[in-house]
User: Which sequence fits this backbone?
């Protein structure tokens, strides 16, 4: 694995632990509160997005549906990042349906609420784990919530299935759960998309998953490196014969998986295609097509 820009560089300001924006006010992250009647809290009626700041001046493009102009959100977020002094940051935007009681209230009368926060960069697979590759399991106890119940392409906080997957992974001595669709096909995991690599081709599910921005970056990186990427139904069986496996998320980037259900993936080493995509992914953080500068 090549050496990486995987250090946390953080300035010591009062907001260095993180900062939240709630109803126009900036608050230190540990003091931030949401109103009890917010439907995002009561009914998980919300959506969210997570861009990242890497190495100070880089913020990945935000692609969310938000109730105030995108440019205004961008200005507020850039200001929050600058005020916090956090150089490698995890930035979250949450839009909820708004305030309503448990039952009463007409949907059309509700005003969406926007919440923003910036905290130090979060890793699904820590830098140390990324050097040797993480361990995953294919969950036996829980399937991914079907798209007919909860649209997985709308990023949401319905994490009951993903949390159960994490608990099972922990019980089975692994870090990362892979959930199936209940019909022996791979979907995604707790905050990441899954990519299998076999005979030089990348496979990732085309349905039942969040169409994550990191998955898009992996697809772009693979295309730039000349690899074929297939978006299609991905049978679980392919995971057991894959040459390489990676997971990808804004929280950690491209993360190699070298053990599945307690067995090595191929020889248990990080494969060459994963390494090449990993390098390209981090290089893309410095390309203007994928990022813009922030002045601290
Ligand atoms: C269920 C799920 N899948 C995939 C992802 C990865 O998405 P992204 O690459 O946009 O961070 C996330 C991120 O939170 C997620 O929650």
Assistant:
């Amino acid at each position: 694995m090549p050496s990486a820009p995987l250090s946390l560089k953080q300035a010591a300001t009062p907001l260095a632990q993180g900062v939240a924006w709630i109803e126009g006010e900036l608050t230190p992250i540990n003091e931030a509160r949401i109103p009890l009647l917010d439907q995002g809290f009561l009914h998980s009626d919300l959506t969210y997005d997570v861009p990242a700041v890497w190495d100070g001046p880089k913020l990945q493009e935000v692609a969310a549906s938000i109730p105030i102009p995108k440019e205004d959100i961008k200005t507020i977020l850039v200001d929050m990042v600058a005020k916090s002094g956090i150089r490698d940051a995890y930035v979250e935007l949450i839009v909820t349906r708004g305030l309503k009681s448990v039952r009463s209230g007409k949907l059309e009368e509700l005003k969406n609420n926007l919440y923003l926060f910036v905290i130090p960069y979060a890793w699904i697979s820590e830098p140390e784990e990324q050097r040797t590759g993480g361990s995953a399991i294919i969950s036996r106890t829980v399937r991914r919530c079907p798209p007919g119940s909860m649209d997985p392409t709308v990023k949401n906080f319905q994490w009951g299935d993903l949390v159960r997957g994490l608990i099972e992974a922990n019980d089975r001595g692994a870090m990362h759960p892979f959930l199936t669709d209940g019909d022996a096909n791979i979907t995604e995991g707790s905050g990441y998309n899954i990519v299998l690599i076999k005979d030089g081709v990348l496979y990732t599910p085309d349905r039942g998953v969040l169409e994550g921005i990191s998955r898009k970056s992996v697809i772009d990186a693979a295309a730039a490196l000349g690899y074929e990427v297939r978006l299609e139904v991905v049978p679980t069986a392919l995971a057991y014969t894959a040459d390489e496996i990676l997971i990808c998320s804004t929280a950690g980037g491209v993360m190699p998986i070298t053990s599945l259900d307690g067995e090595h993936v191929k020889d248990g080493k990080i494969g060459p295609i994963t390494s090449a995509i990993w390098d390209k992914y981090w290089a893309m953080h410095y390309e203007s097509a994928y990022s813009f500068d922030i002045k601290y």
